[in-house]
Amino acid sequence: MNVDIHDSWKPFLQAEFGKPYFKNLTDFIKSEYRNYVCFPPRNQIFNAFNHCHFKNVKVVVIGQDPYHGFGQANGLCFSVNDGIAHPPSLINIFKEIENDLAIKYPKSGNLTRWADQGVLLLNATLTVRAHQAGSHQKKGWEIFTDAVIKLISDNKQDVIFLLWGGFAKQKVKLINNKKHHILESGHPSPLSANRGYWFGNKHFSMTNWLLKQKSLKAIVW
């Protein structure tokens, strides 16, 4: 696996790349992409980092796994490529934005536009085998992405962490809540949203309010 990651992250992550677990992970990913159809495409595995440079990180959204259907995953959590039907969780995200900020529901589910504004859209596991959800979990990705969350917590100030659902909320232990803002809610998946744990969380307006308090530019959601 070629670690095609933006230079701004390298001083903080170079040590991770040299660790035994990362070498094992690299060997596993190379084998998987050689022998199976995997997502996202190889050159998009580190897309979250390449669109959101370290110095620009203002908001962190934590997902679990990439989408495992053809043409969906593009290396950003919850995001799909242009022209791809919106998965249920993304539909509920856009509905909440529509209700919260009166922004019209968008045609494209490609969230690159968020990442380019300083939103790190980080899946805990960065790859997956086609049609096999969770197939690349517990191979080392979670160690790596936990290290990413911790380094942001340690080396930055006033980042807004959006923790949606039980899995994301487990990451709270990696974040210094005296330096950063943590907003928690249910997951946007239909199961959680339909039980009343997602809609009305107003995370998008709250995020922009917090950014403005620090004289930072609001995110155009």
TrEMBL record:
BP terms from Gene Ontology: base-excision repair, AP site formation via deaminated base removal
Main location, first listed in the record: cytoplasm
Keyword annotations from UniProtKB, A to Z: Cytoplasm, DNA damage, DNA repair, Glycosidase, Hydrolase
GO cellular component: cytoplasm
Localization per Swiss-Prot or TrEMBL: Cytoplasm
Gene Ontology MF terms: uracil DNA N-glycosylase activity
Domain Uracil-DNA glycosylase-like: residue ranges: 50-211
Residues the record marks as active site: D65 (proton acceptor)
Reaction(s) the record says it catalyses: Hydrolyzes single-stranded DNA or mismatched double-stranded DNA and polynucleotides, releasing free uracil
Enzyme class: hydrolase
Enzyme Commission identifier(s): 3.2.2.27
Family annotation (SUPFAM superfamilies): Uracil-DNA glycosylase-like
Family, as annotated: Belongs to the uracil-DNA glycosylase (UDG) superfamily. UNG family.
Function noted in UniProt: Excises uracil residues from the DNA which can arise as a result of misincorporation of dUMP residues by DNA polymerase or due to deamination of cytosine.
Protein name: Uracil-DNA glycosylase
Lineage of origin: Bacteria, Pseudomonadati, Bacteroidota, Flavobacteriia, Flavobacteriales
Gene designation per UniProt: ung
